[in-house]
């Protein structure tokens, strides 16, 4: 089933907790295979599953309560109330919060609330870049971008004057006081960009796949989320990292709406999952595509941010329960135990894309065995 057959309109009732069944998903092409130990499956209670996730592989790295990064990808459309609701929800659920070029007041409030602020900065050093990097738990260097009509723009000039992306990563790490630096390799997994990011010594990479269609994004481009995770995982396994650099953390985004999808992405090799449109719908946004800068404010009352935050927290908690339940079904006591062996592809194309065992065949396709 193509991604064009998956729309956010199909998932609205599920996100608001009004649907009895899950909306269709590209992740349905993978089924869960319980891990067997000894004479039978390993029995794990969902309530005991550890969903915590480190922001980097470095010793002593800060850990999130959930392997989820809430993201403001509204291109400035969200109102101050909606952004406040995002901050409050991130604080209450233990997710990271990703915000492009956060203002000083956002950085200050995130610090007060104990939120792991994920600051997105461009490749050029500006006063706002320096300010954002200094107050962030994660600094993300954005190499690729989307245009106003959701077309893929060419790679930005991501190199310093000496032509070294590695030097750029070091500079951002120093600005951030040692905060992990991630490189956003864009909505399309370009292998050259991905390879440069991995060899730069960055703490992690963010790969963004095509999402569900909506009024905001009628046409979708780029790899499917399954292909994005698989391609990034394979590139990581083959990349040459600088001496002493820990393994990179893989974060992937692309239309994630529920905990089943999150758990399957973790099993495929992702360490964290980016969620942007699902949380925006939970805030009450109808994805009309007509709001101007700062105009998207689903909560009309003066304290509307409180109701928006409550709705978003309810949604994230539901995603968390679903993820824990799916991981327990796999036989995993923690998110870190999930692996590709716990998934099975329903069809040949999915097996070829992901490297998962093909149902009825019993093992990965030969192309994945070398």
Tell me about this structure.
- The chain has helices at 8-15, 80-93, 104-113, 127-134, 165-175, 191-199, 225-238, 259-268, 277-282, 304-330, 348-354, and strands at 30-32, 36-37, 40-41, 53-54, 63-64, 68-71, 96-100, 116-121, 138-142, 181-186, 204-208, 249-253, 272-275, 343-345, 357-358.
- It is an alpha/beta fold.
- An eight-stranded parallel beta barrel has the order 6-7-8-9-10-11-12-13, surrounded by seven helices.
- The protein starts with 7 loop residues before the first helix and ends in a 12-residue tail after the last strand.
- The radius of gyration is 20 Å and the shape is globular.
- It has a single domain, classed as Aldolase class I (TIM Barrel), CATH 3.20.20.70.
> What is the CATH superfamily classification?
Aldolase class I
Shape by Cα distribution: globular
Our measurement of the CA-to-CA distance between the termini, rounded to an integer number of angstroms, reads 28 Å
Instruction: Indicate the structural class.
Output: alpha/beta
CATH class category name: Alpha Beta
Level-2 CATH architecture? Alpha-Beta Barrel
The biggest beta sheet is recorded as:
8 strands, parallel, barrel
Number of helices: 11
Low-confidence stretches: 146-161
Q: Measured on Cα atoms, how large is the radius of gyration?
A: 20 Å
């Amino acid at each position: 089933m193509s991604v064009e057959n998956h729309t956010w309109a199909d998932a609205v009732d599920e996100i608001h907790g009004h649907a009895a069944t899950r909306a269709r998903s590209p992740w349905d092409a993978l089924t869960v295979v319980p891990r067997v130990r000894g004479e039978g499956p390993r029995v794990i209670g969902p309530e005991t599953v550890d969903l915590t996730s480190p922001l980097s592989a470095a010793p002593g790295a800060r850990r999130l309560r959930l392997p989820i990064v809430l993201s403001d990808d509204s291109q400035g459309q969200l109102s101050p109330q909606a952004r406040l609701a995002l901050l409050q929800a991130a604080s209450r659920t233990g997710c990271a919060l990703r915000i492009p070029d956060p203002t000083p007041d956002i950085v200050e409030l995130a610090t007060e609330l104990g939120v792991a602020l994920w600051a997105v900065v461009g490749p050029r050093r500006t006063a706002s870049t320096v300010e954002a990097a200094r107050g962030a738990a994660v600094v993300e260097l954005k190499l690729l971008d989307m245009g106003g009509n959701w077309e893929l723009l060419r790679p930005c000039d991501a190199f310093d004057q000496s032509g070294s992306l590695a030097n750029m990563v070091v500079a951002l790490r120093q600005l951030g006081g040692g905060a992990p630096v991630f490189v956003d390799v864009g909505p399309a997994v370009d292998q050259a960009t991905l390879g440069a990011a991995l060899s730069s010594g960055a703490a992690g990479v963010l790969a963004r796949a095509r999402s569900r269609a909506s009024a905001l994004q009628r046409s979708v481009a780029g790899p499917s989320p399954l292909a994005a995770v698989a391609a990034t995982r394979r590139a990581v396994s083959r990349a040459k990292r600088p001496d002493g650099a820990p393994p990179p953390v893989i974060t992937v985004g692309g239309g994630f709406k529920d905990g089943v999808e999150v758990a399957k992405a973790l099993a495929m090799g992702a360490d964290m999952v980016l969620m942007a449109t699902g949380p925006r719908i939970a805030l009450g946004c109808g994805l009309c595509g007509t709001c101007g800068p700062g105009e998207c404010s689903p909560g009309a009352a003066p304290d509307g941010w409180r109701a928006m935050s409550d709705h978003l927290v309810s949604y994230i908690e539901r995603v968390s329960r679903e993820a824990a339940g799916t991981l327990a079904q796999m036989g995993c006591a923690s998110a870190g135990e999930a692996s590709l062996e716990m998934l099975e592809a329903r069809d040949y194309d999915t097996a070829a894309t992901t490297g998962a065992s093909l149902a009825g065949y019993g093992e990965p396709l030969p192309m994945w065995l070398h």
